[in-house]
Amino acid sequence: MSSTSTDSPSSDDRVLSGMRPTGALHLGHYHGALKNWAQLQNAHTCFFFVADWHALTTHYETPETISAHTIEMVIDWLAAGVDPSKATLFVQSRVLEHAELFLLLGMGTPLSWLERVPTYKDQIANLKDKDLTTYGFLGYPLLQAADILIYLARYVPVGADQVPHIEMSREIARRFNNLYGKDPLIEAQARAAAAKLPDSVRAQFHALRRAADQDGLTDKRDEARELIATSKLSRAEKDALRAQLGGGRRQILREPEALLTPESKLPGLDGRKMSKSYGNAIAIREDRASVEQKVKRMPTDPARVKRTDPGNPERCPVWQFHQAYTDEATRNWVQQGCTSAGIGCLECKQPVIDAILREQQPMLERAQPYVDNPGLVRDILADGCDKARTAARHTMHAVRDAMGLKL
Ligand code: TRP
Ligand code: SF4
Fold first, then answer.
1. Residues in Cβ contact with 389 at an 8 Å cutoff, skipping those fewer than 6 apart
2. Which ligand is nearest to the CA of 296?
């Protein structure tokens, strides 16, 4: 769709993404999301934010961790090379406009759209120790849609698990534009033309149009077009109905696209997905001694009980680390040495340890000033919040107008 009057020029290629404040991030986050963010900021207008309201949808009983987790997490963003002179970094709860858009979008969002999001029932089943049958948790993807739509974001870099949420944001934007982006002239002409249709045809046409507009069913739109084509209306009347059907809507909110983050090649220390809750993670700012210890304790191919037993790298999580971290010569050395029992596992792990430490060094250096003075992080966020608010307010003016909230 082409851009519209509500887009300011710089909003055309906006990227937006958010993370819940989980505290210190690990190397999986770095190789999954953050490296990607640090790239995107060079080519796009980027907004990256801390989704602290989203954290409360599931952790409403533990508010005491949010603030510290926010600072820790943002230090890791900065450590990873996310640059506040290029990207806008902010905190969701300090841009109240998100809440206003969330409320307004809630008016016309069918409950069934929220209930059918796959993560909804999954999470309720998985987190049995928490009562997630709350209004806030049901609204999680709607709040996320507000986060995205308020910046008219074009691209949303996320992992595969978030794609259904982006899909829903698209549907919500489409529905909003259909409901509130009507062109009064086209509407009047179409109404006059429809009045000339026989009652039963008109009813059928309205039903098809509604299905096409509200539920995005394109085959219904095609059927409605067919109905117009075979009617006895004049050419001008047919054109008016087709214009109404083909959109004839102002694009107030933009339909965003998911930018699927490539899956990180790095598993956890035990070969499963790296996750703090599995206890198999290495933090982005893990101290040197601890990195060394963690890698040295990694499980290896269970067939290598003794140093003289040959092994198979395919059955060893250390091999996956080699694939993420070391060069071809080193990997050949591993293949050769492991399968012939020519090298020991500790020997094999050393190049991985060295590579991780080498990768972390510049990140530790970038983080240090912020660790020494967290006030700097607060300043960056305050500045980012101001910028985000300006952009959000711009959209909200158009949204309020479209929804009749003007004096
Ligand atoms: N739901 C996202 C997650 O858990 C976090 C998030 C909230 C988000 N709002 C967003 C991501 C908007 C992208 C865009 O990872
Ligand atoms: Fe794993 Fe390396 Fe030991 Fe082989 S030598 S089992 S690849 S750690």
1. 94, 95, 97
2. 2
Distance 17 CA to ligand 1 centre (A): 6
Closest listed ligand to the CA of 352: 2
Mutational test site, ligand 2, from 269, 345, 350, max ligand atoms within 8 Å of CB: 345
Whole-number Å distance, alpha carbon 312 to ligand 2 midpoint, is 7
CATH number of 9-179+253-264+373-402: 3.40.50.620
End-to-end CA distance of the chain: 31
Spell out which residues line ligand 1, taking CB within 6 angstroms: 16-20, 51, 54, 144, 147-148, 156, 158, 162
Is residue 293 within 8 A of residue 235, CB to CB? The reply is no
In terms of C-beta distances under 8 Å and separation of at least 24 residues, what long-range contacts does 133-140 make, across chains too? 134/57, 134/60, 136/56, 136/57, 136/60, 137/57, 137/58, 138/111, 138/114, 139/57, 139/102, 139/106, 139/114, 140/54, 140/57
Determine the Cα–Cα distance for residues 83 and 111; give it in Å rounded to an integer: 39
Mean pLDDT by 10 residues, the chain (407 residues): 40 91 96 96 97 96 95 98 98 98 97 92 85 94 98 96 96 93 86 93 91 76 91 90 79 95 89 94 97 98 95 97 97 98 97 98 98 98 98 97 92
Q: How many C-beta atoms surround the C-beta of residue 380 within 10 A?
A: 19
Strand partners, 257: 155
Fold classified for 276-370: Tyrosyl-Transfer RNA Synthetase (1.10.240)
